[in-house]
Amino acid sequence: MTITNPNHHSSETISGSWQLDLQRSSVEFRTGHFWGLATVKGHFDDFHGHLDLGTSPAIELTIDPASVQTGNRKRDRHLRSADFFDADNHPRVLFVSDSVDLHGDGLKVRGHLSARDRSIPLELDAQVRQVDGELEIEAATTAQHRELGMTFSPLGMIPPRSDLIVRAHLIPNNTYRAAA
After folding, report:
1. Predicted TM-score of the model (pTM)
2. pLDDT score recorded for residue 4
3. How many distinct helices (H) and strands (E) make up the chain?
4. d(Cα 94, Cα 105) in Å, to the nearest integer?
């Protein structure tokens, strides 16, 4: 893993080990439908992750694909099926960083996204803010879901890419936060 910080003034901002505060974090996606004329938006209810620039991997995010929610039960069942996530046979989606480059309040993260026993390289940009001893990170990228085996697209109605958005509130690993 590489960590680069040419500005040096931000290194204190994200030193140490951090864990996701699940109640204030989200993992979301947007995917085109009807040849890109409509957008399906959704999120995952069950995920966990951490950030620690002193270890490798520095960033790890695990998602339970069975927790997908789009506001449409029939669509959610279809997304959990073998046409997409195949959640019964592949109960996790995993992102693991290979490198993290720190530039001021921005991170350039390179890693691999794995689902359905396949893995694709992924690069994302993130903004980092320190607020009251916690970190707020917003990251976005685009993934080729077809390369992960999610090829269902009758008449080519579903474009091959999905936008992924993570809004993370992280707390120091030694902090206990009771459920509200």
Report:
1. 0.84
2. 39
3. 1, 12
4. 25
